[in-house]
Design a protein that fits this description.
Layout: H1 2-22, H2 40-51, H3 56-68, H4 71-83, H5 87-100, H6 104-116, H7 120-132, H8 136-148, H9 152-164, H10 168-180, H11 185-196, H12 203-215, H13 219-232, H14 236-248, H15 252-265, H16 269-283, H17 286-298, H18 303-315, H19 319-331, H20 336-346, H21 352-361
EC number: 3.5.2.6
Keywords: Antibiotic resistance, Disulfide bond, TPR repeat
Protein name: beta-lactamase
Length: 367
């Protein structure tokens, strides 16, 4: 009897070891398969990867179908990848259940398998899930697993979690550690902490850390210093100087801030337009396109150019531009048909409530 038990235990141990060994990573970069838009040629390529024995092909095909909204086929490919031992397939299936199907139980199950096999992003996603559900100890555990794979985003998340818990010493130490590890966002978050946290507010300390991360080449910190001079000190010359430093580091937010400063405060619309266009043309700044539409409508009174820039924003997926374009046609150009056309376009976006109100005012059914 004892011999039988020993044999059964040996079989169980062997099975566990084999299962652990079955999980595999691929050197093929999965980011090659993550695109904004796909063509039929893409899915042919992913299926060819599978035929060639590339493990990531299953995840690539699954991502393709997931982004097309064909979740059944996506699950099919992810499951095939799991059968082959693909860690990425578990991770992507977790993402599908979490982001699209909102089945968090299945998401967590798949994320855990991938995370325990050292898939950093899955561990991070688990941390986010538990953080949002106020299970801080569990969130900390998974964020640390992700950090151990080299993901500094998870260390930043731990710092933000400490803010929620009012563990301010831990906040400071965590953000400092991120900065000391060479990630400027650690100093940015520490600067923001000192700027905005009412319990620990020390604006001079905040600026000190913003300057540290600016010196590391992080344009967002230059922009934050500019905001301090503009909003706290009303020193527009200093604000302009720091926004320019941020723009020199190709930070679109600084270009946007320059455009806003010139338009709203300094009333120099030519300079405002220059910076908004620069942000759009060089960095695809969506807010810059919207702002150009607004300036041409409200300040320059050039409605054709306003339409042009609103449409540029729409091409980049800005629902606010759809809303503003409809409003322009309704209130300035007295073109009811085009206003209705754009408001109906807005019904499938996050500004649908506004679109319904405008359509109702125009006496149009939107059902």
């Amino acid at each position: 009897m004892q011999n039988i038990i020993k044999i059964l235990l040996l079989i169980c141990i062997t099975t566990i070891v084999l299962n652990a060994q079955e999980l595999k990573k691929s050197k093929y970069d999965i980011n090659q398969c993550i695109k904004i838009e796909y063509t039929k040629e893409d899915i042919k390529k992913y299926k060819k990867l599978i035929q060639e024995g590339e493990l990531q092909g299953y995840s690539c095909a699954g991502i393709y179908y997931m982004r097309q909204g064909d979740f059944k086929e996506a699950i099919n490919y992810f499951n095939k990848g799991k059968e082959k031992g693909s860690i990425e397939a578990y991770a992507q299936l977790g993402s599908l259940y979490s982001s699209f199907l909102h089945d968090y139980k299945k998401a967590v199950k798949n994320y855990k398998i991938a995370a325990n096999a050292k898939h950093g992003k899955s561990a991070h996603n688990l941390g986010v899930y538990y953080y949002k559900n106020f299970k801080y100890d569990e969130a900390y555990k998974w964020f640390m697993k992700s950090y151990e794979t080299g993901d500094l985003n998870s260390l930043l998340s731990i710092g933000l979690m400490y803010i929620d818990q009012k563990k301010y010493d831990e906040v400071i130490n965590t953000f400092k550690k991120v900065g000391e590890l060479g990630e400027p966002r650690g100093y940015y978050e520490l600067g923001t902490f000192y700027q905005l946290n009412k319990d620990m507010q020390d604006k001079e300390k905040g600026i000190k850390y913003y300057k540290k991360c600016y010196e590391m080449g992080y344009g967002k910190c230059a922009s934050a210093i500019g905001e301090y001079y503009e909003e706290d000190k009303n020193d527009y010359k200093k604000a302009e100087e720091w926004y320019l430093r941020g723009s020199n580091l190709n930070y679109s937010g600084s270009m946007q801030k320059l455009g806003l400063l010139y338009a709203d405060i300094l009333k120099d619309y030519n300079k405002s337009i220059y910076w908004y266009k620069k942000g759009f043309n060089e960095l695809n700044c969506i807010d810059c396109a919207l702002s150009l539409g607004i300036i041409y409508k409200n300040n320059i009174k050039d409605y054709n150019k306003s339409i042009y820039w609103y449409k540029k924003g729409i091409e980049l997926g800005d629902a606010r531009a759809i809303q503003n374009l409809g409003f322009l046609y309704e209130t300035k150009l007295n073109n009811k048909d085009k206003a209705i056309y754009w408001y109906k376009k807005a019904l499938s976006t996050e500004v649908k409530s506004m679109a319904k109100r405008r359509l109702k005012k125009l006496g149009v059914s939107y059902e």
